[in-house]
UniProtKB/TrEMBL annotation:
Superkingdom: Bacteria
Amidohydrolase domain location: 38-386
PANTHER family: BLL3847 PROTEIN (PTHR32027:SF9), CYTOSINE DEAMINASE (PTHR32027)
Protein name: Amidohydrolase family protein
Source organism of this protein record: Roseomonas nitratireducens
SUPFAM superfamilies per record: Composite domain of metallo-dependent hydrolases, Metallo-dependent hydrolases
Taxonomic classification: Bacteria, Pseudomonadati, Pseudomonadota, Alphaproteobacteria, Acetobacterales
Protein backbone atom coordinates (compact mmCIF):
# COMPACT_ATOMS: atom_id res chain seq x y z
CA UNK A 1 0.00 0.00 0.00
CA UNK A 2 1.45 3.34 -1.05
CA UNK A 3 -1.57 5.58 -0.32
CA UNK A 4 -1.64 7.02 3.18
CA UNK A 5 -3.11 9.96 5.08
CA UNK A 6 -1.08 11.27 8.01
CA UNK A 7 -3.40 13.33 10.19
CA UNK A 8 -2.34 15.99 12.66
CA UNK A 9 1.40 16.10 11.98
CA UNK A 10 3.78 19.07 12.12
CA UNK A 11 6.09 19.12 9.06
CA UNK A 12 9.55 20.33 10.19
CA UNK A 13 7.94 21.63 13.39
CA UNK A 14 5.45 23.90 11.67
CA UNK A 15 1.70 24.12 12.28
CA UNK A 16 -0.30 20.92 12.52
CA UNK A 17 -1.68 19.71 9.21
CA UNK A 18 -2.60 16.59 7.27
CA UNK A 19 -0.22 15.08 4.71
CA UNK A 20 -1.63 12.87 1.99
CA UNK A 21 0.40 10.29 0.10
CA UNK A 22 -0.78 9.01 -3.28
CA UNK A 23 1.07 6.39 -5.28
CA UNK A 24 4.06 6.63 -2.97
CA UNK A 25 4.46 10.39 -3.40
CA UNK A 26 3.36 13.42 -1.40
CA UNK A 27 0.13 14.72 -2.85
CA UNK A 28 -0.94 18.31 -3.41
CA UNK A 29 -2.76 19.76 -0.38
CA UNK A 30 -6.52 19.44 -0.77
CA UNK A 31 -6.38 16.30 -2.91
CA UNK A 32 -9.16 13.78 -2.37
CA UNK A 33 -8.30 11.40 0.47
CA UNK A 34 -11.41 9.23 0.21
CA UNK A 35 -10.76 5.59 0.99
CA UNK A 36 -7.16 6.18 2.09
CA UNK A 37 -5.68 4.46 5.14
CA UNK A 38 -5.26 6.93 8.00
CA UNK A 39 -2.53 7.27 10.63
CA UNK A 40 -3.07 9.67 13.52
CA UNK A 41 0.13 11.64 13.96
CA UNK A 42 -0.97 12.99 17.37
CA UNK A 43 0.77 16.30 16.72
CA UNK A 44 4.17 14.68 16.25
CA UNK A 45 7.06 16.19 14.29
CA UNK A 46 7.17 15.07 10.65
CA UNK A 47 10.59 14.90 9.02
CA UNK A 48 11.82 13.76 5.63
CA UNK A 49 13.58 10.41 5.97
CA UNK A 50 17.32 10.69 6.50
CA UNK A 51 20.26 10.39 4.14
CA UNK A 52 23.46 8.53 5.08
CA UNK A 53 25.98 10.16 2.74
CA UNK A 54 29.16 8.29 3.62
CA UNK A 55 29.34 4.86 5.21
CA UNK A 56 30.87 1.42 4.67
CA UNK A 57 28.09 -1.17 4.85
CA UNK A 58 30.45 -3.98 3.89
CA UNK A 59 32.82 -3.45 6.84
CA UNK A 60 30.48 -3.41 9.82
CA UNK A 61 30.47 -5.87 12.70
CA UNK A 62 27.31 -4.28 14.10
CA UNK A 63 25.34 -7.50 13.55
CA UNK A 64 27.79 -9.83 15.29
CA UNK A 65 27.02 -11.11 18.81
CA UNK A 66 30.58 -10.67 20.10
CA UNK A 67 32.37 -7.38 20.67
CA UNK A 68 35.35 -6.89 18.37
CA UNK A 69 38.41 -6.07 20.45
CA UNK A 70 40.23 -3.24 18.63
CA UNK A 71 44.03 -3.22 18.95
CA UNK A 72 44.85 -1.52 15.64
CA UNK A 73 47.78 0.89 15.25
CA UNK A 74 47.38 4.66 14.85
CA UNK A 75 48.19 5.12 11.14
CA UNK A 76 45.69 4.79 8.30
CA UNK A 77 48.00 2.17 6.79
CA UNK A 78 47.76 0.18 10.05
CA UNK A 79 43.99 0.19 9.83
CA UNK A 80 43.97 -0.82 6.16
CA UNK A 81 46.33 -3.75 6.75
CA UNK A 82 44.58 -4.88 9.94
CA UNK A 83 41.18 -4.88 8.29
CA UNK A 84 42.36 -6.83 5.26
CA UNK A 85 43.97 -9.47 7.52
CA UNK A 86 40.88 -9.70 9.75
CA UNK A 87 38.54 -10.17 6.83
CA UNK A 88 40.66 -12.95 5.38
CA UNK A 89 41.01 -14.68 8.74
CA UNK A 90 37.34 -14.54 9.73
CA UNK A 91 35.71 -14.95 6.32
CA UNK A 92 33.70 -11.79 6.95
CA UNK A 93 30.51 -11.88 4.83
CA UNK A 94 29.85 -8.42 3.38
CA UNK A 95 26.41 -9.46 2.18
CA UNK A 96 25.18 -10.52 5.61
CA UNK A 97 26.82 -7.55 7.31
CA UNK A 98 25.52 -4.94 4.88
CA UNK A 99 21.95 -6.28 4.92
CA UNK A 100 21.79 -6.18 8.71
CA UNK A 101 23.20 -2.66 8.73
CA UNK A 102 20.88 -1.43 5.97
CA UNK A 103 17.86 -2.77 7.87
CA UNK A 104 19.02 -1.06 11.06
CA UNK A 105 19.36 2.23 9.17
CA UNK A 106 15.84 1.81 7.75
CA UNK A 107 14.31 1.12 11.15
CA UNK A 108 15.87 4.37 12.39
CA UNK A 109 14.51 6.38 9.46
CA UNK A 110 17.21 6.33 6.76
CA UNK A 111 15.98 5.52 3.26
CA UNK A 112 18.98 6.74 1.19
CA UNK A 113 22.54 5.50 1.65
CA UNK A 114 25.86 6.00 -0.13
CA UNK A 115 28.17 3.13 0.80
CA UNK A 116 31.83 2.82 -0.10
CA UNK A 117 32.62 -0.85 -0.75
CA UNK A 118 36.14 -2.27 -0.75
CA UNK A 119 37.70 -3.55 -3.95
CA UNK A 120 41.20 -5.00 -3.70
CA UNK A 121 43.38 -7.88 -4.80
CA UNK A 122 42.67 -9.85 -1.60
CA UNK A 123 38.88 -9.79 -1.75
CA UNK A 124 38.44 -9.03 -5.44
CA UNK A 125 34.88 -7.86 -6.05
CA UNK A 126 33.15 -10.16 -3.55
CA UNK A 127 32.34 -7.30 -1.17
CA UNK A 128 30.68 -5.42 -4.03
CA UNK A 129 28.72 -8.56 -4.87
CA UNK A 130 27.52 -8.75 -1.25
CA UNK A 131 26.36 -5.15 -1.11
CA UNK A 132 24.74 -5.41 -4.54
CA UNK A 133 22.69 -8.29 -3.12
CA UNK A 134 21.71 -6.06 -0.21
CA UNK A 135 20.71 -3.28 -2.59
CA UNK A 136 18.47 -5.71 -4.44
CA UNK A 137 16.96 -7.04 -1.20
CA UNK A 138 16.15 -3.47 -0.08
CA UNK A 139 14.87 -2.30 -3.47
CA UNK A 140 11.70 -0.24 -3.09
CA UNK A 141 12.41 0.37 0.59
CA UNK A 142 15.85 1.96 0.49
CA UNK A 143 17.98 3.50 -2.24
CA UNK A 144 21.62 2.41 -1.92
CA UNK A 145 24.49 3.84 -3.98
CA UNK A 146 27.71 1.83 -4.19
CA UNK A 147 31.14 3.41 -4.49
CA UNK A 148 33.78 0.99 -5.82
CA UNK A 149 36.44 1.92 -3.28
CA UNK A 150 40.16 0.99 -3.49
CA UNK A 151 40.75 0.96 0.27
CA UNK A 152 44.19 -0.63 -0.08
CA UNK A 153 45.19 1.71 -2.89
CA UNK A 154 45.50 1.11 -6.62
CA UNK A 155 49.11 1.63 -7.59
CA UNK A 156 50.74 -0.60 -4.99
CA UNK A 157 48.50 -3.60 -5.67
CA UNK A 158 48.68 -4.61 -9.31
CA UNK A 159 45.31 -5.64 -10.69
CA UNK A 160 43.19 -3.27 -8.61
CA UNK A 161 42.42 -1.03 -11.57
CA UNK A 162 41.00 -4.03 -13.46
CA UNK A 163 38.92 -4.99 -10.42
CA UNK A 164 37.53 -1.47 -10.10
CA UNK A 165 36.59 -1.58 -13.78
CA UNK A 166 34.81 -4.89 -13.18
CA UNK A 167 33.00 -3.56 -10.09
CA UNK A 168 31.59 -0.65 -12.07
CA UNK A 169 30.51 -3.01 -14.85
CA UNK A 170 28.78 -5.20 -12.22
CA UNK A 171 26.63 -2.32 -11.04
CA UNK A 172 28.61 -0.04 -8.70
CA UNK A 173 27.45 3.53 -9.21
CA UNK A 174 30.52 5.63 -8.40
CA UNK A 175 34.30 5.40 -8.83
CA UNK A 176 36.20 5.79 -5.57
CA UNK A 177 39.69 7.06 -4.86
CA UNK A 178 42.01 7.39 -1.89
CA UNK A 179 44.71 9.83 -0.72
CA UNK A 180 46.58 10.42 -4.00
CA UNK A 181 49.77 11.56 -2.23
CA UNK A 182 49.88 9.96 1.23
CA UNK A 183 48.80 6.45 0.24
CA UNK A 184 49.41 6.27 -3.50
CA UNK A 185 52.54 8.50 -3.63
CA UNK A 186 51.80 9.34 -7.26
CA UNK A 187 48.80 11.66 -7.39
CA UNK A 188 48.85 12.17 -11.14
CA UNK A 189 48.80 8.47 -11.92
CA UNK A 190 46.17 7.75 -9.28
CA UNK A 191 43.84 10.46 -10.59
CA UNK A 192 44.50 9.33 -14.17
CA UNK A 193 43.05 5.95 -13.23
CA UNK A 194 40.13 7.17 -11.11
CA UNK A 195 38.95 9.84 -13.52
CA UNK A 196 39.75 7.60 -16.49
CA UNK A 197 37.39 4.92 -15.16
CA UNK A 198 34.75 7.55 -14.45
CA UNK A 199 35.06 8.88 -17.99
CA UNK A 200 34.95 5.39 -19.49
CA UNK A 201 31.78 4.37 -17.65
CA UNK A 202 30.11 7.78 -17.41
CA UNK A 203 30.12 7.62 -13.60
CA UNK A 204 30.68 10.18 -10.85
CA UNK A 205 33.68 10.18 -8.50
CA UNK A 206 33.98 10.14 -4.69
CA UNK A 207 37.53 10.40 -3.30
CA UNK A 208 38.59 9.83 0.32
CA UNK A 209 40.97 12.67 1.15
CA UNK A 210 42.44 12.22 4.64
CA UNK A 211 45.62 14.13 3.78
CA UNK A 212 46.35 17.09 6.08
CA UNK A 213 47.43 20.66 5.40
CA UNK A 214 49.32 21.60 2.28
CA UNK A 215 49.58 17.99 1.10
CA UNK A 216 45.79 17.64 1.11
CA UNK A 217 45.36 21.07 -0.48
CA UNK A 218 47.73 20.01 -3.28
CA UNK A 219 45.73 16.83 -3.91
CA UNK A 220 42.47 18.77 -3.79
CA UNK A 221 43.84 21.25 -6.33
CA UNK A 222 44.60 18.34 -8.70
CA UNK A 223 41.11 16.87 -8.17
CA UNK A 224 39.51 20.21 -9.02
CA UNK A 225 41.65 20.59 -12.11
CA UNK A 226 40.60 17.11 -13.33
CA UNK A 227 36.99 17.95 -12.63
CA UNK A 228 37.23 21.09 -14.77
CA UNK A 229 39.21 19.48 -17.58
CA UNK A 230 36.79 16.56 -17.96
CA UNK A 231 33.63 18.64 -17.60
CA UNK A 232 32.57 16.73 -14.47
CA UNK A 233 30.95 19.67 -12.71
CA UNK A 234 28.42 18.39 -10.19
CA UNK A 235 29.75 14.83 -10.38
CA UNK A 236 32.57 14.84 -7.82
CA UNK A 237 32.51 14.44 -4.03
CA UNK A 238 35.53 14.81 -1.78
CA UNK A 239 35.04 12.80 1.41
CA UNK A 240 36.56 14.03 4.68
CA UNK A 241 38.65 16.85 3.13
CA UNK A 242 40.48 17.30 6.43
CA UNK A 243 42.90 19.71 4.80
CA UNK A 244 40.17 22.35 4.59
CA UNK A 245 40.24 22.56 8.37
CA UNK A 246 44.03 22.61 8.48
CA UNK A 247 45.15 25.44 6.17
CA UNK A 248 44.97 29.26 6.44
CA UNK A 249 41.50 30.71 5.87
CA UNK A 250 42.67 32.58 2.77
CA UNK A 251 43.83 29.36 1.11
CA UNK A 252 40.73 27.52 2.30
CA UNK A 253 38.39 30.14 0.89
CA UNK A 254 40.16 30.09 -2.48
CA UNK A 255 39.68 26.31 -2.71
CA UNK A 256 36.06 26.59 -1.59
CA UNK A 257 35.38 29.18 -4.29
CA UNK A 258 36.72 26.79 -6.92
CA UNK A 259 34.72 23.90 -5.47
CA UNK A 260 31.56 25.98 -5.61
CA UNK A 261 32.14 26.94 -9.24
CA UNK A 262 32.68 23.26 -10.16
CA UNK A 263 29.89 22.06 -7.85
CA UNK A 264 32.22 19.70 -6.04
CA UNK A 265 30.61 18.56 -2.78
CA UNK A 266 32.08 17.53 0.57
CA UNK A 267 31.10 14.56 2.70
CA UNK A 268 32.00 15.01 6.36
CA UNK A 269 31.79 12.75 9.39
CA UNK A 270 32.79 15.64 11.69
CA UNK A 271 35.19 13.59 13.85
CA UNK A 272 36.43 15.19 17.04
CA UNK A 273 39.96 13.90 16.52
CA UNK A 274 40.88 15.71 13.30
CA UNK A 275 40.64 19.19 11.76
CA UNK A 276 37.52 19.21 9.60
CA UNK A 277 35.93 21.41 6.95
CA UNK A 278 33.55 23.61 8.93
CA UNK A 279 29.97 23.60 7.71
CA UNK A 280 29.23 27.34 7.90
CA UNK A 281 32.14 28.54 5.68
CA UNK A 282 31.40 25.79 3.15
CA UNK A 283 27.75 26.75 2.91
CA UNK A 284 28.60 30.45 2.78
CA UNK A 285 30.87 29.72 -0.19
CA UNK A 286 28.11 27.79 -1.94
CA UNK A 287 29.68 24.35 -1.43
CA UNK A 288 27.31 21.48 -0.66
CA UNK A 289 28.46 19.72 2.51
CA UNK A 290 26.66 16.69 3.90
CA UNK A 291 27.11 14.08 6.59
CA UNK A 292 27.77 10.41 7.18
CA UNK A 293 29.00 8.01 9.83
CA UNK A 294 31.98 6.58 7.95
CA UNK A 295 32.44 3.11 9.49
CA UNK A 296 29.97 1.80 12.05
CA UNK A 297 31.54 -0.60 14.57
CA UNK A 298 34.20 -2.12 12.36
CA UNK A 299 37.92 -2.86 12.59
CA UNK A 300 38.67 0.84 12.21
CA UNK A 301 36.46 2.13 15.00
CA UNK A 302 34.13 0.92 17.76
CA UNK A 303 31.96 4.00 17.30
CA UNK A 304 29.08 4.85 15.00
CA UNK A 305 25.37 4.18 14.89
CA UNK A 306 22.67 3.69 12.25
CA UNK A 307 20.90 6.74 13.74
CA UNK A 308 21.40 9.77 11.51
CA UNK A 309 19.90 12.09 14.12
CA UNK A 310 22.91 11.15 16.24
CA UNK A 311 25.24 12.01 13.38
CA UNK A 312 23.47 15.36 12.96
CA UNK A 313 24.02 16.00 16.67
CA UNK A 314 27.74 15.17 16.33
CA UNK A 315 28.04 17.50 13.33
CA UNK A 316 26.36 20.21 15.38
CA UNK A 317 28.72 19.67 18.30
CA UNK A 318 31.84 19.67 16.10
CA UNK A 319 30.73 22.94 14.49
CA UNK A 320 29.69 24.59 17.76
CA UNK A 321 26.09 24.90 16.57
CA UNK A 322 23.98 25.98 19.54
CA UNK A 323 21.07 28.09 18.27
CA UNK A 324 18.03 26.21 17.02
CA UNK A 325 18.54 27.58 13.52
CA UNK A 326 22.13 26.32 13.59
CA UNK A 327 21.06 22.86 14.76
CA UNK A 328 18.68 22.86 11.79
CA UNK A 329 21.74 23.24 9.54
CA UNK A 330 23.28 20.17 11.18
CA UNK A 331 20.09 18.26 10.41
CA UNK A 332 20.18 19.47 6.82
CA UNK A 333 23.55 17.71 6.48
CA UNK A 334 21.77 14.35 6.90
CA UNK A 335 18.71 15.41 4.96
CA UNK A 336 18.34 17.72 1.93
CA UNK A 337 22.07 18.52 1.64
CA UNK A 338 22.83 14.79 1.67
CA UNK A 339 20.28 14.14 -1.06
CA UNK A 340 21.71 16.96 -3.17
CA UNK A 341 25.34 16.01 -2.62
CA UNK A 342 24.76 12.34 -3.46
CA UNK A 343 22.32 13.00 -6.27
CA UNK A 344 19.27 11.33 -4.73
CA UNK A 345 16.21 12.61 -6.58
CA UNK A 346 12.69 13.48 -5.46
CA UNK A 347 13.63 14.22 -1.86
CA UNK A 348 11.77 16.30 0.71
CA UNK A 349 8.32 17.17 1.97
CA UNK A 350 7.07 19.06 -1.07
CA UNK A 351 4.25 17.75 -3.28
CA UNK A 352 5.64 15.30 -5.83
CA UNK A 353 8.51 14.15 -3.62
CA UNK A 354 8.85 10.47 -2.82
CA UNK A 355 7.01 9.87 0.46
CA UNK A 356 9.96 8.91 2.65
CA UNK A 357 8.91 10.20 6.06
CA UNK A 358 9.68 9.92 9.77
CA UNK A 359 7.47 10.76 12.75
CA UNK A 360 9.06 11.55 16.13
CA UNK A 361 7.78 12.93 19.41
CA UNK A 362 9.55 16.28 19.61
CA UNK A 363 8.42 19.89 19.79
CA UNK A 364 11.02 21.17 17.37
CA UNK A 365 13.66 20.05 14.91
CA UNK A 366 16.43 21.05 17.33
CA UNK A 367 14.88 18.94 20.09
CA UNK A 368 14.71 15.95 17.74
CA UNK A 369 18.42 16.28 16.89
CA UNK A 370 19.52 16.72 20.49
CA UNK A 371 17.29 14.11 22.17
CA UNK A 372 17.07 11.62 19.27
CA UNK A 373 13.63 10.28 20.22
CA UNK A 374 12.30 6.93 19.08
CA UNK A 375 11.06 6.81 15.51
CA UNK A 376 7.33 6.33 16.02
CA UNK A 377 6.74 5.77 12.32
CA UNK A 378 8.97 5.36 9.28
CA UNK A 379 7.42 5.53 5.82
CA UNK A 380 9.26 4.60 2.62
CA UNK A 381 7.62 5.31 -0.71
CA UNK A 382 4.28 5.66 1.04
CA UNK A 383 4.62 2.30 2.77
CA UNK A 384 4.92 2.00 6.56
CA UNK A 385 8.14 0.10 7.14
CA UNK A 386 8.86 0.63 10.85
CA UNK A 387 7.05 1.45 14.07
CA UNK A 388 8.65 2.42 17.35
CA UNK A 389 12.13 1.69 16.05
CA UNK A 390 11.37 -1.81 14.76
CA UNK A 391 10.80 -2.94 11.18
CA UNK A 392 7.32 -4.23 10.36
CA UNK A 393 6.73 -7.32 8.24
Amino acid sequence: MTDLLLRNVRPMGGPASDVLVRGGRIATPGADATGTAVEDGQGMLLLPAFVEGHTHLDKTTFHLPDWLVNEVGPRIEDKIDSEREWRARTGHDAGVASLAMARAFLAAGTTRIRSHVDVDTSGGTKHVEGVLATREAMRGLQEIQLVAFPQSGILGRQGTETLLDAAIAMGADIVGGLDPCAIERDPVRHLDIVFGLADKHGKPVDIHLHEPGTMGAFSLDLILERTRALGMEGKVVVSHAFCLGDIPERDRDALLARMASLRVAIATTAPASRPVPLVAPCRAAGVAIFGGNDGVRDTWTPYGSPDMLERAMLIGLRNNFRRDDEVAIAFDCVAAAGAKGCGFADYGLEPGARADLVLVEARSLAEAVVTRPARRLVVSGGRIVARDGALVA
